[in-house]
Amino acid sequence: MRLRLARIGSVRSVAIAAFFIGALVMLFHRPFSQGEVGDTAIYDYIAQSVLRGQVPYRDVVDIKWPAAAHLSALAMLVGKPLGIRDLIAVRLLNIFLVGSLSALVFLVTETYLRSRKAAVIAFLVPLMLPRFADWMVAGTEPKLALIVFGMLSLLLLARNQPFWAGLFSMLACLSWQPGLMFTGVTVLMFSRYLASWRDMRAIKAMIGAIIPLAVTVLYFALRGAFDDLWAWTITYNYSVFGPDANHGAMASLEHIWKVTRRILQGDAVIVPLSVIGLFLFAAERIRAKLRDKQSFRSPDLFRDAILIPPIIYFGFCLINFQAGPDLIPFIPFIGIFAAKFLLDAGRLVISHLGKATPSMMARAVFVPQLAIGLLLSLVLVRAASYRMQGPALRDQDKAFKVISDLLGPDDKIYVHGTTEILVLLNKANMNPYVFLDWGADGFAALRKDVEFSALIDEMESQSPKIVALSRMKVVSHRDEFKKWVDDRYEELELEVPGYTGVYMRKQQ
Questions:
Q1: Do residues 157 and 49 touch, judged by C-beta distance below 8 A?
Q2: Most confident range, picked from 352-356, 384-388, 449-453
Q3: Cβ proximity of 388 and 5 under 8 Å
Q4: β-pair partners for 491
Q5: pLDDT of the residue at 297
Q6: Distance between CA 334 and CA 126 in Å, rounded?
Q7: Which of 36, 133, 154, 200 is the most buried (most CB within 10 A)?
Q8: Which of 13-22, 110-119, 351-360 has the weakest average pLDDT?
Q9: How far apart are the C-alpha atoms of 40 and 87, rounded to whole Å?
Q10: Distance between CA 363 and CA 51 in Å, rounded?
Q11: Which of these, 186, 216, 215, 218, lies nearest to 203 by C-alpha position?
Q12: Residue 384 has pLDDT above 70, yes or no
């Protein structure tokens, strides 16, 4: 009993250390200085909109489910009476979430692979990747919330807590729809591959999953926005976005690897190692089932669960993979299965040494320890030598003050793409359409049963004083946007490099 308690205490101590290491690495990436850019600015804007009393999907168009933005809205709400700027509150939340993810990856790996060394390797791998940290610290990232809730559901599954495993698995899904894979895995494992329901564990998991889903549906129904929620997160995704963005499995596979190499650069070598590790673990699980006809009743059956989410998510990516941040749900699993590979590599070396000298045996035993030392060194050196790229938050504040000074209390602004303008000014967009890529522009017009030109006419009727257009590459009606601003607006020059496409209404 004492040994067991000591082991539990030791695991908790390392998990706490993992939390603080993860948080420290994020602090080195200067979260309070990073500029607002890209999709994270959209979700920060949605969080601000929630606090203004607006409703996502009805008042701000988006295609992901709402949990991450509402989590950021809660952080903003808590930070306000403490005098913490809304954006800084979100980034403090992200630091906490990354620390939690590091601890969870450690605990999940230790539980599923049954190796403390593998668990340490697994949580260090994501922290070694500079781009991963960049994605985490610059604003609301739904994929971070997805993987945190997903890892927590896997841990609760292993600890035989079906209700809570189901609940957190659904929170992963409500952060971004592919998170439904964790709910599926939870029900699959607790029902022993749908073969046993008598112990009610699978039912409890399903009840846990239904509760947050029901709360979400009820909230939007009471706010009169359920139709908007369904249209943008379900109908648009399967009928417009999915088909338009799907270029076939082989082209998607090539694109995934191209993006992976560009983002990870030399670190991309760890990806094939993790794939080998996944196959090694899968082979172990298959062999266990072939040896024991009662394996589906085994208390170890839950260990299959760690294999399923990355495989399902890979299938999703073959249908729809856009850019680097889509790698985020993979990265913890890359760490886990790379750790499995390194662990087995050490064992394989030992098994083939035969009559090797004690010194050779010692070196083989220490393969995982050497990997831990190398990874920890890389994490610390890269964090300490990090240099911020892109615009700083203070420079954006200064540049966008020009826009703020031009806007009177009753003046309207329309922004497409450059959502950071709205975030930094903390100002509501003129209409819900902050980003209309991949056929969303046509879908928006279809929902109103009008031609897209009618939406442009509606915008013009409101005479926004400032219009900002960017990220128009895959906007179907970009020419109509451009004609509108060319006819009615003149371009402003801002001091932040790279910011073009901001226009002020011409004097009539």
A1: no
A2: 449-453
A3: no
A4: 503
A5: 81
A6: 8
A7: 154
A8: 351-360
A9: 11
A10: 57
A11: 186
A12: yes
CA atoms within 13 A on the CB side of 58: 13
Could you report the per-residue pLDDT of 40-97, keeping only the tens digit for each?
A: 999 999 999 999 999 999 999 999 999 999 999 999 999 999 999 999 999 999 999 9
For residue 251 the two structure tokens come to 């082209």
The pLDDT of residue 248 = 81
Question: Residue 292: helix, strand or coil by DSSP?
Answer: coil
| 161 contacts: CB under 8 Å, gap ≥ 6 | none
CB atoms within 10 A of CB 38: 19
Residue 493 Ramachandran class (φ > 0 left, ψ -120 to 50 alpha, else beta): beta
Percent of the chain with pLDDT over 70: 93
Q: Let me know: does 157 contact 136? Beta carbons within 8 Å.
A: no
Instruction: Take residue 493 and report the two structure tokens written for it.
Output: 């020059």
pLDDT computed for residue 298 by the predictor:
84
Residue 48 burial class via C-beta count within 10 angstroms: exposed 0-12, middle 13-18, buried 19 and up: buried
| DSSP codes of every residue in 439-500 | THHHHHHHHTTS-HHHHHHHHHHT--SEEEE---TT-TTHHHHHHHHHHHEEE---SSTT--
Cβ-count burial 367-383 (b if 16+ within 10 Å, e if not): bbeebbeebbebbbebb
What DSSP string describes 12-80? Answer: HHHHHHHHHHHHHHHHHT-TTTBPP-HHHHHHHHHHHHHHTT--BTTTB--SS-SHHHHHHHHHHHHHG
The crossing angle, in degrees rounded to 10, of helices 67-79 and 142-158 is 100
Looking at the DSSP assignment, which residues form a beta bridge with residue 414? 467
pLDDT in tens, 256-271: 999 999 999 999 999 9
- CA 254/CA 264 separation, integer angstroms: 15
Please report, to the nearest 10 degrees, the dihedral formed by the alpha carbons of residues 389, 393, 395, 396 taken in order: 110
Q: Which residue, among 347, 350, 312, has the nearest Cα to 333 in the 3D structure?
A: 312
Copy the structure tokens of residue 108.
Answer: 């999940």
User: Which position has the token pair 């940290």?
Assistant: 133
pLDDT of residue 492: 86
Q: Give the residue ranges of DSSP H helices in 162-305.
A: 162-175, 180-190, 201-222, 226-230, 236, 242-245, 249-264, 270-291
pLDDT > 80? residue 339: yes
Tokens of 137: 């610290």
Residues 461-497: tens digit of each pLDDT: 999 999 999 999 989 999 999 999 999 999 988 766 6
- The pTM assigned to this predicted structure is 0.93
Lookup: tokens for 300: 């170890």
